[in-house]
């Protein structure tokens, strides 16, 4: 899918672990939809890939509380500085985030920073003795900009209900690694505000969410950074600016 990257729109981004999509299953999926017209093929591919990920393939490192915590902390670390985080969920093998970039930070830079920092942190946690640090994330990520208020509501519902749909909990608020959770006190929201997940900022303008997609862009792959407590060290603010 092409990326549309702008501070004027809300983005729904999904990124997943490197082993969460078995190659054989993906190949079979592509063969089954190859006779569809291009537009329908893209829609069907998206839905089927999401179903494959929700099936829980791979090591599912994010099922570990220590790994899930690293990801959730990274998602919130620059809230209200580089982006406004609206909703998120950390699933066992993938992550959904609904957010709007700000201060001329690009979506690619924000997502690349999340993935770089958490790959370093998770790799150290799951590394086996005498083995190299494993490859954590699949290189690409999926993104869809929010078109209108109905799309926004559907994206919020999808993110919060993902753990229920996957059979992990009976109610969205029971999943700890989600903006739907009511049990996580002390999360960082913006400049040090301490609150539970349910108190996070949700007022985001939708005025400019009708822009058309542009061509594909590439995700930054700069050198990894050492963390500052409790999240990634800031990069040069000019990185990724138009």
Condensed summary:
By secondary structure, this protein is α+β, with helices and mostly antiparallel strands.
| Uncertain spans | 188-242
Q: What is the CATH architecture descriptor of the largest domain?
A: 2-Layer Sandwich
Give the N-to-C terminal Cα separation.
21 Å
Q: How many separate helices?
A: 5
Beta-strand percent range? 5-15%
CATH topology value of the largest domain = Alpha-Beta Plaits
- Tally of individual domains: 2
Order of helices and strands: EHHHEEHEHEE
Largest sheet: 4 strands, antiparallel
Keywords:
about 240 residues, globular, 2 domains, Alpha-Beta Plaits, 4-stranded antiparallel β-sheet, alpha+beta
Explain what you see.
By secondary structure, this protein is α+β, with helices and mostly antiparallel strands. The protein has 2 domains: 11-20 and 60-199, Transposase IS200-like (Alpha-Beta Plaits, 2-Layer Sandwich); 22-55, no CATH class. Helices cover 32% and strands 13% of the residues. The protein is built from 5 helices and 6 strands; from the N terminus they run βαααββαβαββ. The strands form 2 sheets. It has a 4-stranded antiparallel sheet. Strands 5-6 form a two-stranded antiparallel ribbon. A hairpin with a 3-residue loop joins strand 5 and strand 6 (193-195). It is globular, with a radius of gyration of 17 Å. The protein starts with 10 loop residues before the first strand and ends in a 47-residue tail after the last strand.
């Amino acid at each position: 899918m092409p990326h549309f990257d702008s501070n004027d729109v809300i983005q729904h981004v999904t990124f997943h672990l490197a082993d969460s999509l078995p190659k054989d299953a993906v190949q079979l999926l592509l063969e089954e939809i190859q006779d569809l017209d291009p537009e329908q093929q893209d829609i069907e591919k998206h839905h089927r890939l999401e179903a494959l990920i929700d099936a829980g393939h791979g090591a599912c490192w994010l099922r570990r509380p220590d790994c899930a915590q690293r990801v959730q902390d990274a998602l919130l670390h620059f809230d209200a500085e580089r982006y406004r985080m609206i909703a998120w969920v950390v699933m066992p093998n993938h992550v959904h985030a609904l957010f709007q970039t700000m201060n001329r930070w690009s979506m690619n830079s924000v997502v690349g920073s999340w993935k770089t920092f958490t790959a370093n942190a998770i790799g150290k946690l799951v590394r086996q003795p005498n083995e190299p640090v494993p490859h954590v994330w699949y290189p690409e990520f999926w993104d869809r900009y929010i078109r209108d208020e109905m799309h926004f509501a559907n994206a919020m519902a999808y993110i919060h209900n993902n753990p229920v749909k996957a059979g992990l909990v009976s109610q969205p608020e029971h999943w700890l690694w989600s903006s739907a959770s009511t049990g996580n006190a002390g999360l960082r929201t913006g400049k040090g505000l301490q609150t539970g997940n349910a108190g996070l900022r949700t007022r985001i303008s939708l005025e400019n969410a009708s822009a058309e997609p542009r061509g594909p862009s590439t995700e930054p792959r700069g050198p990894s950074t050492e963390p500052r407590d409790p999240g990634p060290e800031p990069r040069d603010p000019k990185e990724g600016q138009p």
